Amino acid sequence: MNLAAKDIRHNLGRFALTIVGIGMLLMTVMGMAGIYRGLIEDATLLVERIGADLWVVQRDTRGPFAEVSRVPKALVYRVLAVPGVASAREFVFNTIQREHHGRPLRMAILGLSWPLDKGEWLPLMAGRPLAQNHYEMVADKTLGLRLDERIKLGKDTYRIVGITDGMVSTNGEGMAFLSVWDSQAVQFDNSGEAIRLERAARGRRSATDDMFLSQPLLTEQLARPTADLPAVATPELSAVVVRVSTGADPAAVAATISAWPDISVFTKAGEEELLVQGMVDKARRQLGMFRALLTVIAAIIMALILYTLTLDKLHSIALLKLIGAPNRTILLMILQQAVFLGGLGYGVAYLVGQKLFPHFPRRVIVTNEDLLQLAIIVLGISVLSSLLGIWRAMRVQPNEALMG
Amino acid sequence: MRDASLTVRSGEVIALLGPSGSGKSTFLTAVGLINPPTSGQILIGGVLVLDGPNSLVNVRSFRRQHIGFIFQKSNLIPFLSARENVQVALELNGASPRYARRRAAELLEELGVGDRAENRPSMLSGGQQQRVAVARALANDPSVILADEPTAALDSQRGRQVMELFRAVAHEHGTGVIVVTHDHRTLEVFDTIYEMEDGTITKAGNSKEAT
């Protein structure tokens, strides 16, 4: 006869509520691990999807994700000239926040190097990649934009031609994909007044500059947009992404490019490590500490519940001992109840989590590895938490049954 | 206790009378191998079980096989049904669940509570609970049943019924029964009556002499 099951059946409501409570607690522990996995996944998603072998960024920066990096457009052609480089593309990345339909819309914009890259690699759930160099956008579904919807960014309006699934930035913002040209237009958009003031300032400076005084035709150039003036234009790319030729050693190519004094080079693994170790590390440790704390709390609560349940059964335990029940029968009864509570709590955590986690604002990824790890932890805390109850039960004397 | 000695034979029902604090319950717990005495011997079924405080057998196992207990109240496990309360005693003694289930049902039937076999103790009257307790005490065919004030929580009619039940099962099963009681109304059912005072047991005679 399974005494643990009989007791549970007798106190079904109480056990059910306890299981739900423990389940919710374990679901939070499960969720913490899932959020951590989501952070890592989100952080490395873009690097994974872009699939570049090397990332060429501004010297001594950890760009383009961990910090701002600016490199000139011409760097693409310099890199292409390096032996072993199969392709080099512009990479423009920045985050913006705008109002859309009266609500703040925060998006991470990635420039696609048209015409080499039209976004064919994007995981589209609807629509298509870019089909023209301007005024088209592929947006992630988390941005809440619909296919064929139009959105005004800066001075231009863009049509949503494709919707991706699961493309978020390291910070969890949904991504939008434009051509490099358009993404730069959005990034460096200035108001008309700011442009007029800048041109006026150039005019004033040229009026006293010997170069402009000796070459008056140069003054006409000053009216052109800054980006069109190689002599004064600021570097506009965030990075150059490189694929090495088949058979070429990425480390050797990286070493060649690294020799240039104006840039730094990271391999794909290096870039991922920068993201995980740099950007996500504190969040990871924070979540890890919370997870440990919640696990301890779950263990304490389970121990208290099992101890209370044992206290309620002291008379029955004394009776069992009086009629000759060996200690192992009592021990097994409490241990089975602990494992039962933990096991069913774990089941509740899993089932509720499956329903709840997809509605979280950021991705919660529960891996089989984490599930197994938590199952082992739950088994451990079930056994540990039953020790207090077992200790109390072992101290019960058979003559306590005589006390009524 | 001092000079507290009595013998109960197979099938004999004896009463132990005495005022509160006279040592009746202490005697019962000593015989029941719960609180060993500091000196003296306890023999059950001809086996020397306790020699002073030293147990010569595995106490819990021996108790399980040879001693049955009945108390005045709350002596059933609340989360088990009447049948399961009897069945658990059998299973703890090594009986298979199938046999234990069948035997428990038989015992409950024999004691007149077969129709309440699946009820939990809280659903049974005091008399029914005591019958179930008797069934559990008898489950492993013990050498002796120890009953401490088994009728204290019952009215006189039910108390008498329980005492007569003890007598019947003792005779039928050949089990010795020691009943600690204050209830003088039921003394005629006992084969022998002992009195205890200040830890000493004296034989008061048989039921006719006592009443």
Comma- or semicolon-separated keywords:
heterodimer, A: 404 residues, alpha+beta, 10-stranded mixed beta sheet, 10 strands, 17% strand, elongated, B: 211 residues, alpha/beta, Rossmann fold, 6-stranded mixed beta sheet, 9 strands, 36% helix
Please characterize this protein's 3D structure.
The complex is a heterodimer of chains A (404) and B (211). In chain A, strands 1, 2, 3, 4, 5, 6, 7, 8, 9 and 10 form a ten-stranded mixed sheet that branches. Chain A has 13 helices and ten strands. Chain A has 404 residues and is of the alpha+beta class. Chain A folds into two domains: 3-42 and 281-403, no CATH class; 49-279, no CATH class. With 211 residues, chain B is of the alpha/beta class. Chain B has a single domain, classed as 3-Layer(aba) Sandwich (Rossmann fold), CATH 3.40.50.300. Chain B has seven helices and nine strands, in the order E-H-E-E-E-H-E-H-H-H-E-H-E-E-E-H. In chain B, helix 3 (82-92) packs across helix 4 and helix 5 (126-138) runs parallel beside helix 6. Chain B is globular and about 45 Å long. Chain B starts with 12 loop residues before the first strand and ends with a helix. The mean pLDDT of chain B is 84.
Work out the oligomeric state of the chains in this entry: heterodimer
Just give the CATH class of chain B.
Alpha Beta
Task: Please state the CA-atom Rg of chain A, rounded to the nearest Å.
Answer: 32 Å
Q: Biggest interface and its residues per chain?
A: A-B, 25 and 33 residues
